[in-house]
Amino acid sequence: MTDSDIDKTNEAMNSLLPDGEYRKICLPLFLEALKKANSYGSNKWGAYYYDEGVRLLVGNLIVFTVHKKRIWLALDKQLLNERKDLWKLLDESDLWHWETGDYSEYKPVPSMNGYYTPSNKDSDIWPIVRDLHFNYLEKLANKYTWLNIKSQPKHSDKLLDYLKHELGLRSIPFPNYGEAEIAEEISSEESSNLYEGAKKQITVNAYERNPTARKKCLQKYGFKCSVCGFDFEEVYGDIGSRYIHVHHLKPLNEINEEYKVDPINDLRPVCPNCHSMLHKAKFSIEQLREQLRIHAI
Fold first, then answer.
1. 0.90 cut: is pTM over it?
2. pLDDT tops 60 at residue 169
């Protein structure tokens, strides 16, 4: 990050959280939650700042937001229902207030949400809030394979660099959305074949496996097969969420040493069956789509 980027981020954060003492209290709490989320996988979370504060997301949901004077958190509803004593302690505390608006609870993974007001004094409430929050993070991490693809672009490495500098840390976790396992995209026999470029040899699926290129392709085109329209999540539910292969369109004779994959123009999402047929028949997506149309009659 350049000095200019650092200055801009510092300026933005000082505007969002102008009270220096408050930042010293709440940012370590935010970092603690971030590290907990990261412990379940570096592809499951993201963090960013916006005009109302600093946010942490896990899976499909916002879980932690630092506002100017208080912190919004999602707590494990199931555990609260099992431990009425904890619910009572929160109800009686001046430092905790339940959310009453649109985000009072989540239903996909049940939560009860509210606001914690950090204090300079030792608080008996924060350990309770933290444990209920951490329990919820674990459940989200078990449900969602990785951070929602629509939320991934919101993540801000600049925020993490700011936290590292502001809190005097040697290191800080960064998300990696390319870590999710990608299934075999062509057979081992095919992938062992080498194709000659202008001056060097490459494997066909090197471009299809590139996690950064894959991510950008799927952000553009989504997870439905470009040939047959198959959607794994529609058919299989949650276990099929975000599952798809990525196919490389560019003819091999156009690939040379200087070639750099263009995720938008060179890649398309395809299901495994169509992917195999594209490689086997050496068809374009349009040709295979026409083949399907003919044989569906």
1. no
2. yes
